[in-house]
Amino acid sequence: MNFDDKLRQKARHEDIPVPEAFSRRVEETLGSLPARRTRPHIWRRYLGSISAAAVALAFLLPNSSAAMADTMAGLPLVGPLFQVITVRTYEQNEGKNHVSIDTPQISQNEQSPGAQEINSEIETYIDQLIDDYEQTAHSDGYYTLDVTWEIVTNTERWFTLRIDSDLILASGNHQERYYHIDVPSGERKQLSDLFAEDYDYITVISDELKRQMSQRMEDDASEYYWLEGSSQLGTYYFDAIDPNQDFYFDEQGNLVIPFDKYEVAPGSVGSPSFTLTTPELYDHLLYRP
Amino acid sequence: MVQWEIGSAMEGGSFLDELKWFTDQIKENEKTMYHLAMGILGNAEDAADAAQEAILTAYQKLPSLRQKESFRPWLMRILTNECYGILRKRKKLVSLEEIHDLPAVSGGEENLQLWQAVCTLNAQLRAVVVLYYYHGFSVKEIGHILGITEANVKTRLSRARKHLRILLEGTE
């Protein structure tokens, strides 16, 4: 018997049982299927109207946002220099589909290159969310997308805007994006800007994150992270952060690193975040909130 | 080749029959779905997420399936796409593509189960082994499911065999 046949035989005789939780999820999903399905061409027409709205949004924004910032009363004033307004709320309800997208724009008394850069990036991000929606939405519902924003930090020294995207298809998926401005200079800042060039913040932060992940696994057997040597995935594990990993400052001024669902752990852990406590890190910090 | 007249089912209103057929097919393929999703994702809960999305997508796209005989590979392709979507979200994780970089597992152990050995392969190799050895898909079907050429499937199978031989028999 050659090795190929041996593998076939082994595979045939090996029983890899399907866990009950998996079968239950399949059963529940099948139970939720409607007996009547909307025809695809109706769906395509519907998507066409969304695309048109998205295009209109992209073209209208540059002309309308500044005027709106000057004239709209009752805008949420978020600081002496920067304010954020929702320049457009897009809502769509079709059957069980629900899409609601607040598009924020940062405005300020004096032009800030950081704010302009972030506004442009936000537009691209929102367009991408709409594209994803067009690609994957289900015609019978199941698709819920809520995009909202929140000011995380707003002081004389630091400004942070967070955009939350909650997508629910069959399972939920929460994503956060953070945008930061150094208020005195008006410049956009990312994680790599917080430290001097010769300081290896990537290693310091990554080591701290791995230490905290190990600690959480020790404290709670149900919390699991993909670390080298203990990863369920074998060939995949968290090794180091991106140079411009998302971050924010909490109310105490601590650096917090948030991760999206599935990024460093199974979906059951959700979107974990870690407050960095390494004193050395704060000695090297060039900006504070 | 029998054509599946799903279009006429929609026109004629026999949606319940179609739903029942779809439900039976999913149940029949549940084990394959689990093994494939586990093979790619390596985690049972994420595999369940992917399977759930795949079932919803497959049901929505059912009218585009022209031959009911193709349902099984068609479903596995949809599932693979859902799994890859989850993998993309793990973009910050290290991916070890080379066999010599894989975690060390002592070779030649008689009791080492094939599945244990398969779990040490990278996601690309795991997927072809699961489909080929565990569920009897042809090289052509695997190419369709994973969206790669038949030559690429053969290359991956060869690499997987080489690694599995080291693990299971201790020789190349």
Tell me the layout of helices and strands.
The complex is a heterodimer of chains A (289) and B (172).
Chain A: H1 3-13, H2 20-32, H3 40-71, E1 82-94, E2 97-108, H4 113-136, E3 144-154, E4 158-168, E5 172-182, E6 187-189, H5 201-219, E7 236-238, E8 248-249, E9 255-258, E10 273-275, H6 279-283
Parallel strand pairs in A: 2-3
Antiparallel strand pairs in A: 1-2, 3-4, 4-5, 5-6, 8-9, 9-10
Helix pairs in contact in A: 3-4
Chain B: H1 6-12, H2 15-28, H3 30-41, H4 44-61, H5 71-89, E1 93-95, H6 114-118, H7 123-134, H8 139-146, H9 150-169
Helix pairs in contact in B: 3-4, 3-5, 3-7, 4-5, 5-8, 7-9, 8-9
Account of the 3D structure:
The complex is a heterodimer of chains A (289) and B (172). Chain A has 289 residues and is α+β, with helices and mostly antiparallel strands. Chain A folds into 3 domains: 3-73; 82-189, 2-Layer Sandwich (Heat Shock Protein 90); 193-283, Actin, Chain A, domain 4 (Alpha-Beta Complex), CATH 3.90.640.20. Chain A is 36% helix and 25% strand. Chain A has 6 helices and 10 strands, in the order H-H-H-E-E-H-E-E-E-E-H-E-E-E-E-H. Chain A has helices at 3-13, 20-32, 40-71, 113-136, 201-219, 279-283, and strands at residues 82-94, 97-108, 144-154, 158-168, 172-182, 187-189, 236-238, 248-249, 255-258, 273-275. In chain A, the strands form 2 sheets. Chain A has a 6-stranded mixed sheet with strand order 1-2-3-4-5-6. Chain A is globular and about 75 Å long. The termini of chain A are far apart. Chain B starts with 5 loop residues before the first helix and ends with a helix. In chain B, 41% of the residues are buried. Residues 1-13 and 94-111 of chain B have low confidence and may be disordered. In chain B, 67% of the residues lie in helices and 2% in strands. With 172 residues, chain B is mostly helical. Chain B is elongated, with a radius of gyration of 18 Å. Chain B has helices at 6-12, 15-28, 30-41, 44-61, 71-89, 114-118, 123-134, 139-146, 150-169, and one strand at residues 93-95. Strand 7 (236-238) of chain A pairs antiparallel with strand 1 (93-95) of chain B, so a sheet runs across the interface.
